[in-house]
Amino acid sequence: MADRESNPPPSTTDEDPAAGTSTTGLDGTTGFGSGGDTFPDPYAPYPDGDPPGGTAGLPGTVGLTDTGSFALDPGGLPGPRHAAAGTAVLDGSGPPDPLPGIDPATLTWTEDDWAAALLRGRRAGRAYVYLNLIEQRLRAVISAVLVPVYGPGEHPHDDGAWVLAAAGNVQNEWVERAEAVREMSRRRGYIVDPADDELIAFLTLPQLRELMVRNWWCFEPFLPDRRKLERALEEVEIGRHIVARNRVLSPDVLAQVERACLRVLAMLDGPLAEQGDRRLALDAVEELFAGRYADVVGVFQDRSALQRRLPFADLVDGARGIDAMGVSLNLLCQNYSGRDLARLGAGGCDMRLLFLNPAGDAMKQRERDEGIKKGLLSRMTTLNILHMRRVRAKLREPRRIEIRLYDEAPRFGAYLVDGDVGLIQPYLRHARGVESPAFVLRADAAGGSARGLYPLFQEEFEQLWAAGKRTS
Length: 472
Description:
8-stranded mixed sheet, two-stranded antiparallel ribbon
């Protein structure tokens, strides 16, 4: 047989039919049909080349069929299942044998592993929403302040000229690097929205902060406390560094990043600070997910879990209107001081409070359902009503607080704040209110066509309020 390199096999288009048909296997070897030779497969288990009958009968190999076409025997495709059966892998593409002492089952995540990973993902997702808001707000503020100062200048179509001028000669390097990244994104089609085709959109959070610090004389009329803003942005950068690299974000660090983001947003937009930083958490984050679950933005196993995550004072601080209904309304009357309630009323907050009638049959049935001593729940409700009457008596406008009673089986407790945020707790038959699950609702501010849950509970309240009995 002639040397393989010096005498390459003839082309399949010019060869002699009598010499057989040339074939090329998947592994690069060349063989011939009837009347020809076969070059040995280096991975074949036979020392003399192919076994008798050619390669067509071997599982997982390419062979020549009776019709002259190629066929792949599916009986031995590479993979753990076939390897376990003892089938030889001819082309070397099969998985290697496991290392001694390593159980492949250890590579599988357990339920606890998945739960921990999903929890980390939820934390990172929440932090990302805040970080996204921060960067958008910073870019808008920087553009609004610096463009009139540095302007488009001689190049009105070059939006990067003012960024380069504001950065100064010392920072030209990272501005040029951002310009290079933008150009590469243009070529590769990464810029989908034309609004993102601006140089400032490619500056990182530290670079945006540096741009503000270097030009603080421009921002000072709008942002009086430079050091406070810098410290808050430094805390924000901690979270951004962790989220950008998909590292573990602990609850404490997440809370720190959220607080820092809220402070920055409040400083960049004065009116938000009047609502209180804590109310902004609902405005900024939960609203993004409310439409997906019919206004539901939070679910808690019981009232204690709710209080740990969203204290009731954070929910009602600065409220303009509160509609509450339930049995004793302890969440409002016991967890919120009389001084704070009076401050709410004096600030113009209208409260409509609907208690279960302490002397009614429904109250007696509720005491039996909860399995508590007769008259205990009734006395607690009476104390809360008297407490709210004392608060109302201190107001310059007592009409700010209205109290009514109803006498039917309580189905749920509800606190509806400003027609915007709602806290709902269903009454379970053999559980106290503090033990019932709690749902936080966020009204659809956009007025979408899909009706959420908040309007339904508001309507239920209005119907029961209209049928309620006034108290003195």
